[in-house]
């Protein structure tokens, strides 16, 4: 600590810097508290800095390119890929489309 001309204690520059950083972190945590709680309930990944919070749904890790159609969504015949249903990507958390029970489509495409 340093003393100013009124003999008051003033925090040294490194101590002042740490206090400012701590205040910014605290303000950030309070500003993001509600959405952080929502993200925590959703089991999202949260990355924090003092001024930004980034949220990511870890279920995106289960998405991968379809190996049957090389992520094109179409077979060499031109028909939509049955494995990925024409999307070009597969969700590893879902059973393959060909093993699912058929849903009534209500029409032809
Ligand atoms: Zn495919």
UniProtKB/TrEMBL annotation:
Report the protein name in the record: Uncharacterized protein
Q: Which organism is it from?
A: Microbispora bryophytorum
């Amino acid at each position: 600590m340093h003393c100013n001309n009124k003999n008051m204690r003033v925090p040294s520059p490194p101590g002042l810097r740490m206090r400012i950083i701590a205040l910014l972190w605290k303000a950030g945590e309070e500003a993001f508290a509600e959405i952080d709680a929502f993200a925590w309930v959703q089991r999202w990944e949260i990355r924090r800095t003092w001024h930004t919070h980034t949220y990511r749904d870890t279920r995106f890790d289960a998405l991968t390119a379809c190996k049957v159609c090389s992520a094109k969504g179409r077979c060499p015949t031109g028909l939509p890929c049955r494995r990925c249903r024409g999307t070009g990507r597969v969700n590893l958390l879902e059973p393959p489309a060909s093993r699912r029970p058929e849903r009534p489509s209500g029409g032809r495409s």
